């Protein structure tokens, strides 16, 4: 379905309705979200990945229409050149496989439906999509872009290290547990798929929440009235649109303080993470260091309880490490021959020490 060209405001200025990828500004947040799903924006995101400047909407439409024929011509030219250079390059490079919503991005296992595939990637590989309630596109579109990064550019989703093949990139992500995406960096390419301009204090915010819930219903994202969100992994965190201090973390008072916290977050610059968001990401990284069985056990607790358990485990580990260090130091001092006055050489020769 062709998306009608959005109405661009006369004065371009950096705001919550400004697209940094395409360098265009929009009058409303609805136009900004519809632009994020348009082919023009997707093409500019691909150009940004390879380091090219964005195209204007007219030129981008022409590039999209000609992309199929240009790709076929380039593939045939590369095949001819490779056959002339060496026998090793006789086989033309295989095109990237087509995106299948039911196929796992990391082990290529196919599920019965997209929901089952997301559940498989979450449980088997620890896939985590942060701030899923603020996605400007549907979850399947984001998965299609992740498929492009893995199978076309052979890059890791988390550290963006490049490999020679898609299989090598998959092995790297599985071995390093890099099956997550990071939006903490200001220049993260994934920020183009998010929209943090919505607030929860007015009618437009409620409408945006309904739209986000409809986009993420495929992965069973549950957002309650108190502002908490259940992630695909089963963990419950507070709404990431809040930006108040830590005294609002009490579970019993979230429903009463959600409205005031949304007003403070509306004044925060778009694209910058709040203190609570950074704490949530630190919690996710801490849980990612645990085993799958421990992660399953931790999913039964709330976010504050998970932080407390992880902090207690770190303290116990540090205490045990210090005790082991003291014990080894004491044993080494007792085994020091220069401190053993009763030591006698068993063999003739110069005295030790």
Give a concise summary.
The chain has 353 residues and is mainly α.
Which radius of gyration do the C-alpha atoms yield? 27 Å
Total number of β-strand segments? 5
Low-confidence stretches: 7-14, 86-93, 199-223, 231-235, 237-257, 263-268
Q: Strands of the biggest beta sheet: in what spatial order?
A: 3-4-5
The shape is elongated
Instruction: Average the pLDDT over all residues and give the rounded result.
Output: 70
Residues in helix, %: 40-55%
Number of domains: 3
**Proportion of residues in extended strands:** under 5%
Pfam family, one: zf-C2H2_2
Region (Disordered): 201-279
Protein name: C2H2 type zinc-finger-domain-containing protein
Subcellular location: Cytoplasm
Describe the overall structure:
The protein is elongated. It is mostly helical. 46% of the residues lie in helices and 3% in strands. A hairpin with a 4-residue loop joins strand 1 and strand 2 (24-25). The chain contains eleven helices and five strands. The relative contact order is 0.08. The strands form two sheets. It has a three-stranded antiparallel β-sheet with strand order 3-4-5, with no helix packed on it. Strands 1-2 form a two-stranded antiparallel sheet. Residues 7-14, 86-93, 199-223, 231-235, 237-257 and 263-268 have low confidence and may be disordered. Helix 2 packs across helix 3 and helix 9 (275-288) crosses helix 11 (303-334). It has three domains: 1-83, no CATH class; 98-221, no CATH class; 235-239 and 273-337. The longest helix is centred in the last third of the chain and has 32 residues, at 303-334. It has helices at 29-36, 39-49, 57-85, 114-125, 139-151, 166-176, 203-215, 254-266, 275-288, 292-298, 303-334, and strands spanning 18-19, 24-25, 222-223, 228-230, 236-238.
């Amino acid at each position: 379905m062709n998306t009608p060209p959005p109405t661009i405001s006369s004065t371009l200025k950096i705001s919550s309705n400004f697209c940094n990828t395409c360098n265009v500004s929009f009058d409303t947040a609805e136009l900004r979200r519809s632009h994020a799903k348009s082919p023009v924006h997707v093409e500019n995101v691909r150009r940004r990945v390879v380091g090219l400047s964005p195209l204007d909407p007219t030129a981008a439409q022409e590039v999209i229409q000609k992309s199929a024929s240009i790709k076929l011509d380039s593939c045939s030219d590369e095949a001819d050149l490779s056959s002339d250079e060496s026998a090793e390059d006789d086989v033309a490079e295989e095109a990237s496989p087509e995106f299948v919503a039911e196929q796992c991005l990391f082990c290529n296992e196919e599920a019965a439906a997209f929901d089952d595939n997301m559940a498989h990637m979450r449980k088997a590989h620890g896939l985590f999509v942060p701030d899923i309630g603020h996605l400007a596109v549907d979850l399947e579109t984001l998965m299609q872009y992740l498929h492009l990064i893995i199978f076309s550019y052979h890059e890791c989703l988390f550290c963006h290290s490049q490999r020679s093949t898609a299989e090598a990139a998959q092995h790297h992500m599985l071995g390093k547990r890099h099956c997550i995406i990071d939006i903490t960096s200001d220049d993260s390419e994934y920020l183009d798929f998010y929209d943090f301009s919505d607030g929860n204090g007015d009618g437009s915010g409620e409408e945006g929440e309904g739209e986000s819930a409809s986009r993420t219903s495929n992965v069973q994202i549950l957002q309650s009235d108190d502002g908490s969100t259940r992630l695909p992994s089963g963990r419950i965190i507070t709404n990431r649109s809040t930006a108040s201090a830590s005294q609002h973390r009490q579970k019993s008072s979230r429903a009463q303080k959600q409205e005031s916290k949304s007003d403070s977050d509306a004044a925060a610059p778009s694209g910058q993470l709040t203190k609570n968001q950074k704490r949530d990401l630190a919690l996710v990284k801490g849980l990612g260091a645990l085993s799958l069985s421990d992660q399953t056990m931790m999913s039964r607790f709330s976010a504050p309880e998970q932080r407390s358990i992880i902090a207690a485990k770190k303290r116990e580990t540090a205490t045990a490490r210090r005790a082991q260090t003291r014990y080894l130091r004491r044993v080494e001092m007792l085994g020091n021959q220069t401190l053993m006055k009763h030591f006698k050489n068993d063999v003739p020769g110069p005295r030790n020490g």
